Amino acid sequence: MAYSFPEEVLEHVFSFLTSDKDRNAVSLVCKSWYEIERWCRRRIFVGNCYAVSPEIVIRRFPEVRAVEIKGKPHFADFNLVPEGWGAYVYPWIAAMSAACPLLEEIKLKRMVVTDESLELISKSFKNFKVLVLSSCEGFTTDGLASIAANCRNLRELDLRESEVEDLSGHWLSHFPDNYTSLVSLNISCLGSEVSFSALERLVARSPNLRTLRLNRAVPLEKLPNLLRRAPQLVELGTGAYSAEIRSDTYSNLAEAFSACKQLKGLSGFWDAIPSYLPAMLHVCSGITSLNLSYATIQSPDLVQLVTQCRNLQRLWVLDYIEDRGLEALAASCKDLQELRVFPSDPFGAEPNVSLTEQGLVSVSEGCPKLQSVLYFCRQMSNAALVAIARNRPNLIRFRLCILEPRVPDYLTLEPLDTGFGAIVENCKELRRLSLSGLLTDRVFKYIGTHAKKLEMLSIAFAGDSDLGLHHVLSGCESLRKLEIRDCPFGDKALLANAAKLETMRSLWMSSCSVSYGACKLLGQKLPRLNVEVIDERGPPDSRPESCPVERLYVYRTVSGRRVDMPGFVWTMDEDASLRFS
Amino acid sequence: MSPEKGNDLPESEYSGCLKTELTLGLPGGLETPKSGSKRGFSETVDLRLGSSCEDEVSVSTPPPSKAQVVGWPPVRSYRKNMMKNCKYVKVAVDGAPYLRKVDLEIYTSYQELLAALEEMFTCLTICNVVNERKIMDTSNGTEYVPTYEDRDGDWMLVGDVPWKMFVESCKRMRLMKSSEAVGLGPKASSKGLSIS
User: Fold this and answer.
1) How does it associate, per the subunit comment (chain B) (predicted)?
2) Quick one: pLDDT band at residue B128, thresholds 50, 70, 90?
3) Residue B71: which of A78, A343, A344 has the nearest Cβ?
4) What is the pTM of this model?
C-alpha cells in the first residue's frame, strides 16, 4: 500500500502514546495497526485480575515490561469480603516467568501474594526494577529476603499498607553489599524492627535514594543517622515521632532535617509528640505533600505545622485538626489540591473533637485548587453541601462519610438529597463520589441526571427502592465501578439495566435485596459477565429463589468463570441450573 | 434482608490486642487476663440498624445507641490497626519456664498492670506497700520485684516514673527475685494483700 508508513515508523509514532486509552484506540484502527501496537506495548493495566487471564495478556502483548494488576473489590478494605475469596497473583507470576523474562515492573493492589510468588519473581526476571505491593497480603519477610537477595537491579520496593508476616528483621541484610541502585523503599507497614545497622548501610550506599518510608519501630533518635546519609531525599516517612525530650536529640534532628533541601513529602509521625514538630520547620516551605493521618496531635500544634507549609498540595490529617485548624489551613495553603480528614475515634458515640461541616466549607472557600476530598465527620447540612458545590465546581473526587448511617441534615432534619444534588450538578468533572447520611431515591435521580463523568460511586444505607438504582445505572454514562451496601435495591433495576453491566468494570452489592433467582437470570442472560454470589450461609439453592443473596459481585470478563473460587462463592452461568441439581 | 448484621460480633474487624491474646497460663491455673480495656467499641452490641433496614426509613430519630455494623464507618483495617497503640512487651518471671507478653496500652495504671500480671502468673499475689510495689509467690514465700528494661537498655524499678512515660520507655519486663534485687527492694515491711 503506497500510502501506509513502514512498520518501524508507526512503531516509533506509537511509542509516544502512553495512555491505555490511546493505545486501545490505535489498536482498533485496522489489523496491521493492531499488530504493530501489540508488539510494542510495554505497560499493561489490569483493573480486575479476573477480567482476563494471564495467558491472554501475554499472548497479545509479548513484549510487556510493566504490569499493574488489581484484585479484590474495594469493599474488601472494610472486611466485607471473606478470607480466601481469591485474587491470587501466583498464576500471573508463573505465566510471566515463563514468557516474559524481560519484565521489569510489577504493581499489585489488593492481591494475595505468597513467598513463593516473591521468590519466583526474584529468580525469573533478570532486569527486575519495581515492586509495589499495595494493600496486599499473604507473604512474610522471607519473601522479601528473596527479593533483596536476587534482584540486582531493583529500584523500588514499596509495601504500602500491606499485611506482612514479620518473621525476622534481617531480610534487609540480604541486599548484597554491592547493591547500590535503590531509589525508593517503603516499609512503613512492617510491624517489628528491621535491623537498623543493615538499613543504615543500605541507605549509605544508595546515592539515588529518593523515597524512604520507615516503619513505626524505627526510633526517632536514630532518624538523623539515616537523614545524614541521604540528604537528597525527596520523600520521607518517619518512624515513631516521639522520644524522651532531650535537647541533643532535638538539635540532631533539626540539623539533619535542615540538610535535606529537596524534601517535598513527609509521612509517618506515629505517636507524634508536639515538642519534636518544630524540628521540621526548616523543610516546611518546600513540602507539597503531608501525611499526618497517624499523628495524634492536637489542633494548635497541627495548625502551627500546617500553616508553615505554604506550598502544600496534599494534606492527610486526623480530625484533631478541627474546624478552626481547617480555617487556618484555608487561609495559608492556597495551593491545596487534596484534603483527607480521618476520624480519630470512629466508633465513639459522642464527638471527641470539634470538627463539623464548617471545616470543609472553609477549605472549599479558601482553596481554589481543591479537587479531591475525603472527609469523615458527624454532621452535615444541605446548605453546607450546596456552598461547597458552588465554591468548588472543579471537584473531581468527593467522598463524604458521615459516621452515623442515615443521619439527616442536622439543621432541617431533611434528607441530604439536595446537597449531594448540588455537588453533582455543579461539579461537572466529578469522577468519584461516595455518599452518606440520609438519602432517598431523589439523590439518585440527580446523580443519574447530572453525573455524566462519574466513574466510581459508593453507596451505603441509602435509597428507598429500585428506582434509585435504576436512575444510576441508566443515567451515569461513564460509570465503571459501582459499590453498594445495605440499600433496598433489588431485582427489577438490576435486570432492567443488565446490559449496562457489560460497560462497567464491576458491580458490588451486599446486604441489599437481590434475589438468587435474579442472579441466576443475570448470569444466564449475559455470558460475558461473571455473576458471583458470595454467601456464607451455604449453597444458594438450599434456600428459596426469592431469598436475597448476602453479597453479589458482577464483573465483565473475557476469560469466563473463575477456577479458584472458594466454597462460599458461586458463579451464575448457563450451567448454573445443571450444577445444582 | 441484611442478614449479615444480625448475629456476629464484629470482632474480626478489630484485629486488636483483645482478640490476639493467648490464654496459656503457667502451671497453677488457666485464666484469661483481665482486659481493663477502655475502648468504647468493645462495649455495645446493639444492632438496631439491622432491623431498621426492613422498616420505613425514619427521618427524625437516629438510633439511640451507637450500633456496631461490619465495615462501617469505612475505615480500612490497616488504618485501624495502625491507630491502635499496641505495645506488647515480654514479661519474664525468674524461674518460670517461659515468658508471657502483655499489651501495656490496655492498662492505665501500674495497679492495673500488676493485677493483670497477677492473673497471668497465677501463683503470684501483689503485696501493697506504701510507694512500693512488690509481688509475692505465696506458695513458697519468694518475693519478686517488678523491673523493666528501658530504651537505653538499663534495668529500672517499675513505678518511679509516670505511667505514660513508663509505657513509652518500657521494652520488656522482668519480675526479679527480691534476693537478687539488692539495693532496689523496699525497706518498709510488706502488707500482704492476697487475692485468691
Assistant:
1) Homodimers and heterodimers.
2) low
3) A78
4) 0.81
